[in-house]
Amino acid sequence: MSQRRKFIKQSLAGSALFLPGAVSAFSSFDERNPKTGEIPLILSTWNHGVPANAAAWAKLKETNSILDAVEAGVRDTELDMDNLSVGLQGLPDREGITTLDASIMTGDGGCGSVAFVRQIKHPISLARAVMEKTPHVMLAGEGARQFAIAQGFPLEEEVLSPKAQIEYDKWKVTSQYKPIINIENHDTIGMIGIGSNGMLAGSCTTSGLAYKMHGRVGDSPIIGAGLYVDDEVGAATATGLGETIIRICGSFLIVELMRQGRSPQEACEEAVRRLVTKSKNIQDIQAGFLAINKDGETGAFAVHPGFNFAKATASGNLLIDSKSHF
Ligand code: ASP
After folding, report:
1. Which of 23, 103, 114, 236 has the fewest CB atoms in 10 Å of its CB?
2. Ligand 1, closest atom to CA 209?
3. pTM of the prediction?
4. Domain CATH number, residue 218
5. Ligand 1 pocket mutation pick from 45, 77, 184, 206 by most atoms within 8 angstroms of CB
6. What is the pLDDT of residue 16?
7. 174 flagged as catalytic
8. What domain range is 92 assigned to?
């Protein structure tokens, strides 16, 4: 468990915590009746969601665009040198190469994603460029990198961050291939939000499973798995072992369950229940979901304890522990 997460855990007095790092408009903690959710609203995965939400909120105030907000929010995490599961500082694949996955979506059906991309510091902005500047939804690998160059994205040097290098060197001692994401080793950021105009958007970005096979792609860039957004209903995002999330089309499933009348919480719980029934070795696997509906109600649920998320409204930017199946 990272020192950062340990610190947050030790600091938690109850199930929710008001943290510094929020923008100045956030002055008090007032957990409202979830049935009358506050809008605007931004939810994001893990404790790095707190600074990411703050960055997203500041952007929302500046441009009034929830799309701009969810892009700016996770760009903050893509630069977080302490995060070993997002951005170029993330842990590499088993060949020692860091490859990134990201997706972005708007509630009117706009979506873009990049997978298995190298040397790009902000894959979320590249995903947005795919959405806005190509007739496609998804670009992968060398093609995504070439598109990035054509769009003027700078190419970063391909070296591991000092922390990732230390961890990779330790891993190489045994080189044990264990494609598992448990409660200790994942940190992807997924962010979903609704603006004051009722429009929804979401973003998701990751370096994926540590020491994965070269070429492995997780759920995060797969529209409907790591992220799904529909202005008529709501939005959902995922973190955890991507293979289990892809298998159940997790985020799409949650949005469709909400469309059929489930609350965001009920929909997240049903998605986890389905994931649990379809996954082997579930005792070793962590996955978690976040959801919002268009009324600003929220939901969060994980396979195991340990998943937390940040919730930003005009009342505060809170770190909240998710409930879990086990
Ligand atoms: N969902 C990501 C993946 O499977 C990993 C994570 O959430 O840490 O690539």
Report:
1. 23
2. 9
3. 0.89
4. 3.60.20.30
5. 206
6. 45
7. no
8. 37-173+180-321
The per-residue pLDDT for range 203-248, each reduced to its tens digit, is: 999 999 999 999 999 999 999 999 999 999 999 999 999 999 999 9
CB of 192 within 8 A of CB of 291? yes
Backbone angles phi, psi at 247, to 5 degrees: -55, -30
- Kindly tell me if the per-residue pLDDT of 92 is higher than 80: yes
How many domains is the chain built from?
1
176 CA to centre of own chain: 27
Between the CA of 99 and the centroid of ligand 1 the distance, in Å, is 12
**Pocket residues: Cβ below 6 A from ligand 1:** 85, 181, 186-188, 206, 208-209, 218-220, 239-242
**Which residue in 45, 188, 237, 313 is the catalytic one?**
188
CA 281 to chain centre: 23
Average pLDDT in the chain: 89
Residue 24, domain member (yes or no): no
| Residue 43: burial class (beta carbons within 10 Å; 0-12, 13-18, 19+) | buried
